[in-house]
Design a protein that fits this description.
By secondary structure, the chain is an all-alpha fold. It has one domain. The chain has ten helices and two strands; from the N terminus they run αααβααααααβα. The chain has a two-stranded antiparallel sheet with strand order 1-2. Helix 3 packs antiparallel against helix 10 and helix 4 packs across helix 5.
Length: about 280
């Protein structure tokens, strides 16, 4: 809950500033490596663990224990919802893309190519529907677990530590907006380097990340655990980066509607974010 004592609030802001300073110092070399050397998964994995390391260092400097973070698994209800919600908004996003003609459902030939990439073509004589089912199952389970190994690093920092410090000085809305803005800003070197339309993708990306922040902050505070955020983040990445795009053929002139920086994903996540914001306010979270 928010602190009332002004000296305690100042101390909380100092802790927040220390965490962010350490985070920038730790992340900068890997951002440089990705942008100027090679976009290796090793560098990406290292970046995603920088928030956790920054949180651990901050706790050490402040004389607090790492065990003070919410490591408990929490209620399974929130784990299940943290899988279901990002999968749902990913599916809704691409259903709308297909319905409005911004993309088309993948053909058998595209699915076959997907099967070759996953090494499924050597398994008997699999047809496209079977390839699709097996691919989705593997990505939705095994790949989510693999992805969670890196999202854990981010979420120890963002939802395990950062939002709890912010909660000492800001209400739920402030925590969600501020942490979401910082989380989105943390990605800016990659956005600048890899964007085709910097202004549009900055806008859509910030909408997406801040909207996700409302949802993840809600589940973190409700569960009193960092694990729902870890699962949520991993599932969101897998569905919006690896499952739904592979089931979609881009139509000419509609590229800006597709993908994790696309307009449709921003609109859908914004709707979800508003729902969870209103839900949190109603529940006086």
């Amino acid at each position: 809950m928010m602190l009332e004592n002004s000296s305690e609030r100042r101390e909380a802001w100092k802790t927040i500033l220390l965490f962010l300073t350490l985070l920038v110092a730790l992340t900068s070399p890997f951002h440089y490596a990705i942008v100027n050397l090679y976009p290796s998964r090793i560098y990406v994995g290292a970046i995603m663990w920088c928030p956790a390391i920054a949180a651990f260092l901050t706790l050490k400097i402040k004389g607090r224990k790492i065990s003070s973070l919410n490591w408990n698994w929490g209620d399974w209800k929130y784990i299940r919802l943290s899988y279901f919600v990002p999968a749902l908004y990913g599916i809704i996003t691409y259903l709308l893309i297909w319905i409005f003609g911004f993309g088309s459902i993948a053909t058998g030939e595209v699915i076959t190519d997907w099967g070759k990439e996953l090494g499924l073509m050597g398994i008997g004589t699999l047809n496209p529907p079977m390839i699709t089912i097996i691919a989705i199952f593997l990505l939705a389970t095994v790949e989510v677990i693999r992805s969670a190994a890196t999202t854990l690093g981010e979420e120890i920092g963002w939802r395990g530590f950062f939002i709890y410090e912010l909660r000492k000085v800001l209400p739920f809305t402030g925590v969600s907006v501020f942490s979401g803005f910082i989380w989105a800003s943390w990605h800016w070197p990659l956005l600048v380097f890899y964007s085709n339309n910097i202004l549009l993708e900055f806008i859509t990306f910030f909408i997406v990340i801040i909207s996700m922040s409302f949802i993840m902050t809600y589940y973190t505070f409700k569960s009193k655990s960092l694990w729902p955020a870890v699962i949520f983040h991993a599932v969101s990445n897998v569905y919006i980066q690896k499952i739904m795009p592979e089931l979609t053929i881009k139509n000419e002139g509609t590229a800006y509607w597709l993908g994790e920086n696309g307009i449709m994903f921003a609109l859908v996540t914004a709707a979800f974010g508003i729902y969870f914001w209103r839900k949190a306010i109603k529940e006086k979270l």
